[in-house]
Write a structure and sequence with these properties.
Layout: E1 2-6, H1 8-11, H2 21-32, E2 36-41, H3 43-57, H4 63-74, E3 79-81, H5 83-97, H6 101-113, E4 117-119, H7 122-128, E5 135-137
Parallel strand pairs: 1-2, 1-4, 2-3, 4-5
Helix pairs in contact: 3-4, 5-6
Length: 142
């Protein structure tokens, strides 16, 4: 079974219609059929919750839709890894590649597990694509 690291920019597209939602939902289908294994750091859920909140503030979603999306995210069959255990490597990544420590957590997980890291964050992808061959942009991921 293939293992992937997915960040919240991919995960949020499972619950809301956005650009590249179709590609993200294809990965969700594979996850639900146990065709892939997905690893995420703890922060994945905080980022999903924050994005749900932002969507309500921008009036893109109702509070009910935001709560429903977050509740469904909590039920996903993903393997959760401690931010604490990843934080040292995450900080190194952040300082070296000028990315947030949050993004550094996902990169650390991909490095440790030698698995592809899929993101819908174009800025993150562009900053890291020449440094890591395991980072994949959701729009290009097959």
């Amino acid at each position: 079974m293939k293992t992937l690291i997915l960040d919240a920019s991919v995960g949020i597209k499972w619950f809301f219609e956005e650009e590249m939602s179709q590609e993200a939902r294809a990965l969700l289908g594979q996850l639900e059929k146990n065709e892939i294994k997905v690893l995420v750091p703890d922060i994945f859920f905080s980022e999903v919750a924050n994005t749900c909140w932002v969507r309500t503030k921008r009036k893109l979603s109702t509070a009910h839709e935001a709560n429903d999306a977050f509740n469904r995210a909590e039920l996903l069959p993903v393997e959760i890894h401690s931010d604490h255990e990843l934080s040292g490597v995450a900080l190194d990544n952040s300082l070296q590649f000028e990315i947030s420590a949050y993004d550094g957590l996902y990169l650390a997980l991909a490095e440790i597990y030698a698995s592809p890291f899929v993101t819908a964050d174009k800025v993150l992808f562009d900053r890291c694509k020449d440094k890591f061959d395991f980072i994949k942009y959701l729009g290009d991921f097959k």
